[in-house]
Amino acid sequence: MEKIGHRYVIQYFYLKGLSPTNIKAELDSTLGGSAPSFTTIKYSVAEFKQGRTSYQNEHRSGRPNDVTTRGMVKKIHKRVVDDRPLKVREIADMLGISKSGVHRILTENLGMKKL
């Protein structure tokens, strides 16, 4: 069951008047090892008490987790082909992404390695 499904069930038990401890016991008996942790249940119940109505994760601002897009792969490939002796750090600085992101694209997506 996914997080959204867990939230539906947690809210159902919360509306029935069960405490987080009792909700955890119910979910453990039903879902076994795939049940959410007690901390997750306690946090969800607290949010429902405060009036949360959405089951979706809230939008978070900030940097995206993955920079491995088709456009970024093309940009890195073009930089490497145009100027071979570039360092990973230089490419990262030019494109504004992490060195590990550049290294992952070079090795996994473009199949390149240091010679």
From TrEMBL:
GO molecular function: DNA binding
A single GO BP: regulation of DNA-templated transcription
Record-annotated HTH iclR-type domain positions: 83-107
InterPro entries from the UniProt entry: Transposase-MT_Hybrid (IPR052709), Tscrpt_reg_IclR_N (IPR005471)
Pfam families linked: HTH_IclR
Top-rank lineage group of the source organism: Eukaryota
Full protein name: HTH iclR-type domain-containing protein
